[in-house]
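Question: Now follow the chain.
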Amino acid sequence: MNNAISIFLQERIDARDFPSAVYLVAEKGEIAFQDALGYAVAEPERLPATLDTIYDLASLTKPLVTGLIAAHLIERSEVDPEKTVGYYFPEFDGFSGFSDFDALDTLVSELLTHTSGAQAWKPFYLFTKNRSEVLAEIFRTEPLLTKPEVVYSDLGFLTLMFLLERVAGQEIGSLAESIVITPLELGNTFFSPDATLKSRIAASEKGNEYERRTCAEKFPEIRIPHSALRSSLIWGEVHDGNAWFMGGVAGHAGLFSTAEEVFKLALQFLPQYTQLLKPETCELFRTNFTPGMNEDRSFAFQLASTKDSTSGKGMSLESFGHLGFTGTSLWIDPVKERIFILLTNRTHARSLPFANINSVRRRFHDLANELLDEKN
């Protein structure tokens, strides 16, 4: 525990930004500071957060599962980042096409850097009957036509997920198990948690009211079936509506884990500590593939050199990180060999709008960097 960080985060809990927070700060492969604060479940009962509390990581799934698996398959020359999506899905030839844009002409590398031009989000539970129809619906979805700008996109990473599944012949959950979870001996990292673990899991929103309102705003012509979204407390199952619709297992969201196991996953992106990748592959995560664009992106991550990133002031510009909608975040500084993990459940026990906690993330990173600097 470190008092400065814990006191700051407790202040934000008291201000109702989020009901709980678990943080972990590491340097050179070793944990330096960690603590658990607040209540992982605040209603209808109160369960304190602990260092072993399991959080819905939301979009951290993108780099920790889909990004890692993509890097692994690229290393094995099973996926070529400079080939098009259409190369891997020849049966869709001529299926899509909107003016000068064709989703099948998108490069795999553009999916990884969010430069494919795909829409950011779409509620597939309103447009398809099941998971098997999602990819075709993505190809039917008109793009934003902002290529080559960065547009952070769930649709892009879902396309990447289907591509990896096609190449490997397994669904993403099985790939995560065989390529990531089993080799690292992770016992608290999974999709679709078992019901017996519910008391260890941080609760989320009561129902999908946020998504319901978003659907009504973006698609006012569509009647939202009662079965499409939940109304009870989301606790022990994925918060993201599309991931839930897809059985809790998806390439853009759905992973659950603890801070310590996120730390073990984070080490895989650093050449000195990775067990899953070749050290030279880790250069992909700190390399800016979108220079001159509206956001600096590496392989599956945002870079600290991006204007207004949540990295704070103390990280190197080559640091890379990712956020999760539920209130999670991970940043990695490859120069100083530092890792910063902050897990919160900001969607729980709070009426809309949810708190924007980006300033909290920046302050957490700044405090942690200052304290690590003092130690050295």
About this structure: Residues 115 and 150 are 5 Å apart (CA to CA). The domain at 3-61+188-205+253-375 is CATH 3.40.710.10 (Beta-lactamase).
